[in-house]
Amino acid sequence: MKAVVTCVAVAVQFLTIVPPLLRRPPSPDELGRSVTFFPLVGLLIGLLLFGLHRVLSTIFPDLLSAAILLGVWTLCSGALHFDGLLDTVDGLLGGRDADDRMRILRDARVGSFAVAAGGTVLLLKFAAIGSIGAAGALVVAPVAGRWLTSMAVVLFSYARPAGLGRDMKDNAGWPQAAGATAIAAATLGFLAPSVGIAATGATVVLVCLSAWILVRFTLSRIPGLTGDIYGALCEVGETVCIVTLAANWSV
């Protein structure tokens, strides 16, 4: 039980702005096993957003409430995943070859591709939050994004020889993928009646499809995934999820 609590703490402090819960750096094994609980971190963020939505919707107009929720959503992770998305877009769409693209991925500067992609994602999230019929979508989306990250860590090769991402990749396997999937599936199953069965099914298909497209494109440009790609997958998964759940499925 202590090992599980430690791994949950590692996942929380790695993926959010919560102050470090451990008084020491996590071991590579703890980093790998924490992958199981990435969707759980998403669930905690989602519950925060759900509760905040209930409060804000009684005080502010929908659009203002959506703007505040989007700000809190981004702040929860310290814009970690959003930064990964920006770096990913610049890196994969730029560069002459794989080595050059890997260099750009490390570059903290933001280019025009990144600005366009980041602005589009924020606008889509904002519009979807402002028009969702079921606030449960605010819980499902963060879970879906972090489930994609967990699966990407386990399923695909890592491009760099060292670093936190490498430690995580080398120590995460099918048990972590299964655990993460169980958490995500339980969340989705519990909330499916409130967000709609058709919407739930479409969300699963579209989130997985968008992740597959991003991963295949990544592997055609560089030799493996990186921490930035993990962040991009989370952002793409969240965006596709909440946009899908905001659709009018009664038509």
UniProtKB/TrEMBL annotation:
Its cofactor is Mg(2+). GO terms for biological process: cobalamin biosynthetic process. Coiled coil: none annotated. It is found in: Cell membrane. Its EC number is 2.7.8.26. One of its GO terms (cellular component) is plasma membrane. Pathway: Cofactor biosynthesis; adenosylcobalamin biosynthesis; adenosylcobalamin from cob(II)yrinate a,c-diamide: step 7/7. It is an enzyme of class 2 (transferase). It is a multi-pass membrane protein. The chain crosses the membrane at residues 33-51, 110-128, 135-159, 195-215. It catalyses: alpha-ribazole 5'-phosphate + adenosylcob(III)inamide-GDP = adenosylcob(III)alamin 5'-phosphate + GMP + H(+); alpha-ribazole + adenosylcob(III)inamide-GDP = adenosylcob(III)alamin + GMP + H(+). GO terms for molecular function: adenosylcobinamide-GDP ribazoletransferase activity; cobalamin 5'-phosphate synthase activity. Its main location: membrane. The keyword Heme does not apply. InterPro entries: CobS. Pfam families: CobS. Belongs to the CobS family. Joins adenosylcobinamide-GDP and alpha-ribazole to generate adenosylcobalamin (Ado-cobalamin). Also synthesizes adenosylcobalamin 5'-phosphate from adenosylcobinamide-GDP and alpha-ribazole 5'-phosphate. This is Adenosylcobinamide-GDP ribazoletransferase. It comes from Caldilineaceae bacterium SB0675_bin_29.
